[in-house]
Design brief:
The chain is built from 2 helices and no strands. Helices cover about 75% and strands about 0% of the residues. Helix 1 runs antiparallel to helix 2. The two termini are about 25 Å apart. With about 70 residues, the chain is mainly alpha-helical.
Length: about 70
């Protein structure tokens, strides 16, 4: 969300999480390193979404704190 306003929406981050996780799983399958499993895609995507939510909470709290300092 810091680098792009497109990533401010939760579904954009979820799509990015799914796509990047699928890319990693495909590379594991092609290179025969580790096992390509669907639960990895789901858990990695859920982790990215949880990370997005935590970031949003912290950034909103930080903005409120800055607004209080200005007043």
């Amino acid at each position: 969300p810091i680098l792009s306003s497109y990533m401010e929406r939760w579904y954009s981050c979820l799509i990015l999480g799914i796509c990047s996780s699928i890319l990693i799983e495909c590379s594991q399958y092609v290179t025969s390193r580790g096992k390509a499993q669907i639960d990895d895609v789901l858990l990695n995507s859920a982790g990215m979404l949880i990370g997005w939510m935590i970031f949003r909470l912290i950034s909103k709290a930080h903005i409120k704190r800055l607004e209080k300092k200005e007043n």
